[in-house]
Amino acid sequence: MDLCFMSIHPSIHFSSVLWLNFGAFAGEKHAGPANAAEHRKHSAQSSVGLEEIVIVIQSQRNSYHAHRSGQRKLEILQQAAQLGQGVPVVVLLHELSQYEGDWSILPALPRLFASYGHSASWLFFIEEETKVTLSALLKVLNRYSVQEEWFLGKRLHDNEASIIHHYAFSEDPGSFGYPETAAGWALSAPLHRRLTERIQYEKLKSDFTIDLKHEIALFIWEEGNGPKLTAVPEFCTELRDNCATTFTTYLPHCGDPVSKNDVFVAVKTCQKFHSDRVPVVKATWEKDAGLLEYYSDITDASIPTVSLGVPNTERGHCGKTFAILRRFLSKAVPKADWLLIVDDDTLISLPRLRQLLRCYDPKEAVSLGERYGYSLIQKGYSYTTGGGGMVLSRTAVSRLLSSSCGCYSDDAPDDMVLGRCFTSLGVPITHNPLFHQARPDDYSGTLISMQQAVSFHKHWNVDPVAVYRYWLKDTNLRDEL
């Protein structure tokens, strides 16, 4: 949404949106074990059984994701029955409560503690495409004392200070580890108990949830008073010997990609960027679009652009975005199932997006992209961040425009207003981490290299054409990653 105005931090929005808040949490300081070398010293006196493990699948409310997570739950329970060593509790996160913000984990921890804290020795979180080998998971967890605070996972770290992590640990970015959630991560019962106490009383330092993995690790670390992440080699994203978990893909194959003409692409621009940003779009991904229009503050036949009659603003672009939504439903443009709204400095793989969209039902109200959250610990709302691309089904657009929800001003932050509106309408914000609000270098190299990304955002200090060709243009090399 940072379009045609002075550059700001892409992860932070304006203080003027604080009115959007819908609705804070300090426990005692207590240091946990510092590193993995201590785990043998603290080995448990007795073995933990599967019945003492709560497996939380980080599921989503959208029907495709609810179905996939339900399948994963069934596979785990069938495996447990065959193993004959007890049955774990398997929780679908989206079913834990009616609150959409449970995806950010911290609001869900007290609910999980209330339901399972009396009997669970471990909470183990996985994603819906994470496969678990229960026998190997038991071996891993039984290496660690259930009387101690443990935070276990596959360790990621920043290669350099990252804007999406607010330049945390800028002097030594590699010193702080955070979990690759696709490989699974675990909390011991004592740590779960103390985190629950903290959440009930402690005010979070930021109202925004930007990168869940990093922010959970920071909250647990508690400025050095809590445990750091202990790396577990058996928590895997690629199949190796002795893996307790493996991961498939964020880009599933649900059949042939949707047609180019099923996706209408709206590119937000302004006269200021006609000569530098628009040529990048034309040199990279525009050719993959079947239906595309550029929306600007002036009509420029050389591009061409469409002026929607909304003056350019210095901050957000809510007025322009809602005009795009109305145009999408009008007879002025060809009818399409899906609307993609992007900034003029968004780089995107439309073939990968069309493959992804085959998994979703356009007759369902779908809002898809990279999910952020605002004030989630206080009953806030989620939204699809604009720079990574906002994908809306025709049904979602129709529901939105037929409601009374809209912009409080033309310069309101469009992505956040859309998120607030969809939350009020009961439309879930569906997340896929292949959409990116920032540049490739702003993410963990380990994480980004295993993805087939759908989008990146920003031209700061990068060659955007080179970024597109390496990360987004489909070649045999990239397809293998």
Query: What can be said about the biggest beta sheet?
Result: 7 strands, mixed
User: Compute the gyration radius: what is it?
Assistant: 23 Å
| Total DSSP helices | 13
- Mean pLDDT comes to 90
Distance between the termini: 30 Å
Assembly category: single chain
Number of strands: 22
Topology:
Blueprint: E1 53-57, H1 63-83, E2 89-92, H2 108-116, E3 122-126, E4 130-132, H3 134-141, E5 151-153, E6 155-156, E7 178-179, E8 185-188, H4 189-199, E9 208-209, H5 212-221, E10 230-231, E11 245-247, E12 263-268, H6 277-283, E13 291-296, E14 305-307, H7 318-329, E15 338-343, E16 346-348, H8 350-357, E17 367-369, E18 371-374, E19 381-384, E20 390-393, H9 394-401, H10 414-425, E21 429-431, H11 445-449, E22 455-457, H12 464-472, H13 476-479
Parallel strand pairs: 1-2, 1-3, 5-10, 12-13, 12-15, 13-14, 17-21
Antiparallel strand pairs: 3-8, 4-11, 5-8, 6-7, 9-18, 15-20, 16-22, 17-20, 18-19
Summary keywords:
globular, 481 residues, six-stranded mixed β-sheet, alpha/beta, seven-stranded mixed β-sheet, disordered C terminus, 26% helix
